[in-house]
């Protein structure tokens, strides 16, 4: 999320394209097309973030910037040239890095929270402990918040480290337990 996605539509025979159409496969979703004989480009239900990467004459790649969770889904590129009609299918999966925090609470528990990630982040502790527990909250937009609790009431460790692992980012947060 927030970055650029480029979906390339190959021109297999390297002959001039007569028609290129990009569609998002859902009802009333984006349609972007170019017809060369009229030098005509059309947009229907496309947000401003969905455009041609270059000129559709030279390269009919689709550019999505910035990518948003709502852009996730299936896309189709249809091309027509003197050799025939061609269909290319793409699946766009959007990942969202979580916001990570590590805080103590009043009952001598360290709380490591990975908020609004997609997919859910994995949380682990150093040192490993049998005194940790975890909760998960699913949000309507498809993101997940994972919260892990590390109790140190009877611990002799001077510090604890929360490791958050996610496809978009890995983070390590350290908390001093001597305070």
From TrEMBL:
<dbReference type="InterPro" id="IPR036179">
    <property type="entry name" value="Ig-like_dom_sf"/>
</dbReference>
<dbReference type="InterPro" id="IPR007110">
    <property type="entry name" value="Ig-like_dom"/>
</dbReference>
<dbReference type="Pfam" id="PF07686">
    <property type="entry name" value="V-set"/>
</dbReference>
<dbReference type="GO" id="GO:0038023">
    <property type="term" value="F:signaling receptor activity"/>
</dbReference>
<keyword id="KW-0675">Receptor</keyword>
<keyword id="KW-0812">Transmembrane</keyword>
<keyword id="KW-1015">Disulfide bond</keyword>
<dbReference type="InterPro" id="IPR013783">
    <property type="entry name" value="Ig-like_fold"/>
</dbReference>
<feature type="domain" description="Ig-like">
    <location>
        <begin position="1"/>
        <end position="93"/>
    </location>
</feature>
<keyword id="KW-0472">Membrane</keyword>
<dbReference type="GO" id="GO:0150077">
    <property type="term" value="P:regulation of neuroinflammatory response"/>
</dbReference>
<dbReference type="InterPro" id="IPR013106">
    <property type="entry name" value="Ig_V-set"/>
</dbReference>
<comment type="similarity">
    <text>Belongs to the CD200R family.</text>
</comment>
<dbReference type="InterPro" id="IPR040012">
    <property type="entry name" value="CD200R"/>
</dbReference>
<dbReference type="InterPro" id="IPR013162">
    <property type="entry name" value="CD80_C2-set"/>
</dbReference>
<dbReference type="Pfam" id="PF08205">
    <property type="entry name" value="C2-set_2"/>
</dbReference>
<dbReference type="GO" id="GO:0009897">
    <property type="term" value="C:external side of plasma membrane"/>
</dbReference>
<protein>
    <submittedName>
        <fullName>MOR1B protein</fullName>
    </submittedName>
</protein>
<keyword id="KW-1133">Transmembrane helix</keyword>
<keyword id="KW-0325">Glycoprotein</keyword>
């Amino acid at each position: 999320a927030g970055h650029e996605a480029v979906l390339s539509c190959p021109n297999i025979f390297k002959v001039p394209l007569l028609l290129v159409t990009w569609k998002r496969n859902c009802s009333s979703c984006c349609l972007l097309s170019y017809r060369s004989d009229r030098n005509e480009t059309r947009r229907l239900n496309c947000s401003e973030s969905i455009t041609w990467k270059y000129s559709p004459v030279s390269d009919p790649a689709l550019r999505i910037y910035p990518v948003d969770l709502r852009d996730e889904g299936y896309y189709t590129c249809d091309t027509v040239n003197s050799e025939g009609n061609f269909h290319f299918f793409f699946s766009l999966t959007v990942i969202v890095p979580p916001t990570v925090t590590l805080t103590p609470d009043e009952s001598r528990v360290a709380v490591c929270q990975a908020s609004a990630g997609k997919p859910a982040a994995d949380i682990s502790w150093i040192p490993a402990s049998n005194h940790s527990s975890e909760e998960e909250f699913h949000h309507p937009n498809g993101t997940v918040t994972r919260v892990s609790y590390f109790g140190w009431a009877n611990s002799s460790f001077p510090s604890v480290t929360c490791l958050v692992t996610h496809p978009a980012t890995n983070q390590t947060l350290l908390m001093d337990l001597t305070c």
